Amino acid sequence: MKYTELKDKSTKELLEILKEKKVLLFKLRAKLKTMQLTNPNEIREVKKDIARINTAISNHKSKA
């Protein structure tokens, strides 16, 4: 997910996406602990997506 895709979305949409990504991160970490995760780089990508979403949310707040 790129930042350019996120900057045009509303704050409400961003918060929904953020919630979904946090749930996904929780599931991936659980899979990692139970040795079911095949690609540990997925965790890194989800964390970066969460950071991008948080950046877009903060930019929306600063513009308002």
Account of the 3D structure:
This protein has one domain: Helix Hairpins (Orthogonal Bundle). Helix 2 packs antiparallel against helix 3 (41-63). The two termini are 24 Å apart. It has helices at 3-6, 11-33, 41-63. The mean pLDDT is 94. With 64 residues, the protein is an all-alpha fold. The longest helix is centred in the middle third of the chain and has 23 residues, at 11-33.
Using brief descriptors, characterize the structure shown.
single chain; 64 residues; mainly alpha; Helix Hairpins
Short summary of the structure?
The chain is an all-alpha fold. It has helices at 3-6, 11-33, 41-63.
Total number of distinct structural domains: 1
Output the radius of gyration: 13 Å
Structural class, from secondary structure content?
Answer: mainly alpha
How many angstroms does the end-to-end distance come to? 24 Å
- Estimate percent helicity: over 70%
Mean pLDDT: 94
Query: Could you say which overall geometry the principal axes of the C-alpha atoms support?
Result: elongated
**Main sheet properties:** none
- Extended strand count: 0
- CATH class category label: Mainly Alpha
Low-confidence stretches: none
CATH topology: Helix Hairpins
Provide the β-strand percentage band.
under 5%
